[in-house]
Every structure is written in C-alpha cells, then in structure tokens.
Amino acid sequence: MKVIWNGVMPAVTTKFTKDDTLDMKMFAININAQLEAGVNGIILGGTLGEASTLTYEEKKTLITETVKQVEGKVPVIINIAEQTTTGAIDAANKAEKYGANGLMMLPPMRYKATDFETVTYFKKIAKSTALPIMIYNNPIDYKIEVTLEMFEELLVHENIEAVKESTRDISNITRFRNRFGDRLRILCGVDTLALESMVAGADGWVAGLVCAFPQETVAICNLVKEGRIHEALEIYRWFMPLLELDISPQLVQNIKLAEVGTGLGTEYVREPRLPLQGDERIRVQKIIDEGLRTRPKLPNYKALV
C-alpha cells in the first residue's frame, strides 16, 4: 500500500496488561477508534509506543496485528530507533517482511553522530529497503538536527519522502517548502504547534493526544485544510491544555491517563515508567476532566475530505 504522507497520523500508544504483556484487545479498540475518526495512517513503536521497552517479537506482533486490523484502509508505519546501523537495517528489513508500509526513522540513538555520520546512517538504511521513509527531526529530545543541507543529500534516495518536523521552529516549514517544494512532505510532530504548522504549509500532523481524542484531532486538520481556520481554532483552543500533556517527560503516562478518560486505553505502562502519582496525577486528571466536561460539538468534518 502506498503511503500518502498527509493528514493525521497517530503515534499510537502500546497497550499493556497488568501482567506486562501486550493487550491486543484494548489496542484493537483504540485502532478502530482511529480508523472511525478518519486518520490517514497508524504509526507504531514511537516514543508514545514505548519503543525502547519493546522486544522484536512484540514489535512483530504489533505490526502484523495492526496490518490485519486496518485491512488496507490506511498505511501502517513502524518507528526505527536503533543504536547501530546494522540494527536499524535489520529492523527495517523485518518491518518490511512483517507487512509494514513505511518507516519513521530517528537518527542513531545514544551516540551524538556528526552530520556526516547521520547522513551516512540514513542513506545506508534507505538503500537497504524499498519502504518509504519519514525522517524524524527532533533535536530538542534527541540532540541531532537534520538540516536542510543534510536533506539535500538524503533526497537523492527516492524512498526518503517526508519529515516529521519537531524542531519547534515553525519557520522551518517554510524553509523546507522553499528548498524542496513538494518533493519533501512535511508533518508536524509537536501537538501544541499543529494548527500553526499546517497553516504554514505542513501536509499533516503526527499526533499524540489523538490517541485519546481522535475525532477532535482529525476535525482540526480537515478544517484547516479547507481554510475554515476560525472553526479549527475554536476546537484547538479547547484542546490546548490537553495537547500540552504531550510536551512532557511523562507524556506516555499523561496520554494513557487521557485514554482511560475516553475509554480508549488503560494506564498500564512498562517499567521503569510508572503511572502518575500524587500532586502531578491530580493536576493532569483535572485537565482531562475539564476537557471531557467541555468537549466541543464537532462539525461534519469527515465530509470535508
């Protein structure tokens, strides 16, 4: 299935049972809610998916079961975040074998690679797979920025197609567009900058709070694309306190607690993560409760696409 890097692509959470095994029943409930809301793809095994804690067998299960569930309605993309080039190539090959339709790729983990090393890393992986690739550009969290000059080199590989833009600099979207036109598709990777990024020309949104609020997320995206900015802003302003739960070291716990509120998940996380405690739990729960209390009525956003 061809990946169209456009619209809302949820970076979904991985669901666990109280016994720390994959909860594929609850996972399927959430994926179904995403599909019903009208998302454009499913991204597995990102930061929200607790990728660093997953075994290869668990990643295989997540890919194969998601591919089976979506039945070709939307592409399934797996995140690649490895410490070695050979490990990343192996992960990409396994993803292709298990049925994934595309890859989201981080620079090398742990080691702060130079620009040359980072470009070489991405190029070798791109050569090793036929799958389309979205580069995850997040220097705030991962300390390596993929610059325009680096993308100039990378885009000689036709299967490097998109960037998840998470530099927090919205003007970077214009720089990418000016330099590469539509050759490089741009998706916002920061929930609290999504509307602004799409107004600036981003093609879509790799979203986090969509895990708990899929309809509201897709509604904002579709309304912006139709130029109905005022309507999108009304929803976005309601959403902002919730979206801010994504820009936190405890984003996984925050969003899983929000999923509990909407019936789309459980609080179980994999250690060393633990569910929120004390005053911080009270603070986050208040934000979620207020969001649920004031949840807006949505227009017929599905008719816009």
UniProtKB/TrEMBL annotation:
Keyword terms of this UniProt record: Lyase
InterPro entries tied to this protein: Aldolase_TIM, DapA-like
One annotated GO biological process: N-acetylneuraminate catabolic process
GO molecular function, one term: N-acetylneuraminate lyase activity
Alphabetical list of SUPFAM superfamilies matching this protein: Aldolase
Catalytic residues as annotated in Swiss-Prot or TrEMBL: 136, 164
The keyword Lyase appears for this protein: yes
Gene3D superfamilies assigned: Aldolase class I
GO CC aspect terms: cytosol
Residues reported to bind pyruvate: 206
Keyword Cell wall biogenesis/degradation found: no
PANTHER family per UniProt: N-ACETYLNEURAMINATE LYASE
Name of the protein this chain belongs to: 4-hydroxy-tetrahydrodipicolinate synthase
UniProt organism field: Cellulophaga tyrosinoxydans
